[in-house]
Amino acid sequence: MGIFDKGVKKTNLNFFQKLGRAIVGKSKVDDDVLDALEEALLSSDMGVDTTLKVIDNLEDRVEKDKYVSMDELVDLIRDEIGKLLNVDGDDAPVQPFDFSKKPYVMLVVGVNGVGKTTTIGKLASMLTAQGKKVVIGAADTFRAAAVEQLTIWAERAGVDIVKQAMGSDPASVAFDTVKSAVAKGADVVLIDTAGRLHNRIDLMNELTKIRNVIRRVVPDGPHEVLLVLDGSTGQNAFVQAKEFARATDVTALAVTKLDGSAKGGVVVGIVDQFRFPIKFLGIGEGIDDLKVFDKKEYVESLFRKEDIEN
What we know:
The chain is of the alpha/beta class.
C-alpha cells in the first residue's frame, strides 16, 4: 500500500465506481467510456478546464495509438495526470527544504480552518526527526487559540517558539523569530500567519509587511511561501489559491484533509491551473500524516487498477 492510499481512497473508489458502470462488458474505449471518465474526473473536483484537457489528450492518444483495453486506459490516465503534476519538468522527488540556506525561512499562509497551524506543527516534528533545529514564529496574533495550539505543537516537537501578547504586530513577531533563529543557529524557521480571508485586503497587505521585516534579517527570505489548502472544500480551494496568488508570491502548496474526502482531484486541478508545486499532503490527523508529496506515488494511489476488478 502506498503512503497516499489512505488519503485518496475515497476519490479512487468513487472514480472507479463511476467509470465501472460504463466499461462493463466493453473491450474498447468508446465515447460512452470517455463520457463516464469525464464525469468521474469532474466529481473528484479536478475542475472543468483540467478535466477537458485530460479528456482531449486521451481522445488523441486513443485514436493515435489504438489503445483498446481498460487496463491500458488507466495507464494512459495516470500518464496524463502525471504530466499535469510535473510543474517543474523534473520527475525527481520533491525536495521540501533547501538546507543550504540557513536559516531556511518558510512563511505559512491560508484561511482559518484549513489546518495551517497543525501543518506547521507536523512540519516541525518532521524536521526535528531529521535532526534539524527549528524555530516557530506565532505571528497569528489575532487568535489566542492559534498561539495556544502552536505552543502545544512546539512543545510536542521539542522546538523553540517565539510569541508575543495577543494583538501584537504580526510583523514584529516575524522579525523577532528570524532574529532569534539566526542567533541560535537554527536550520529552519516556520512562521504562522493570521488565517486571512482572501477577500480582506488589509490582512493580505500584512503579508507584504511581514516579508519586508524578514528581509531585514535574512535578505533572501522568506525562501518559501507555503499556501495551505483544505482539499475537502473542492472548488473553494481554487478560489483561495487564486486570491492568495494575487496577494503574495505563493511558491508551494500543502493540501490537507484529503483522507475524509472524495475530492482528491482538486490537487491536480490546482497544480494545473496555477502551476504551484505541491510539497506536502495531509492524509490524516496523526503527527506522521503529513507526507512529502511524491507525484508518481500520488497518481498511482489516485488511480489503482485493482479497483476495476474489485
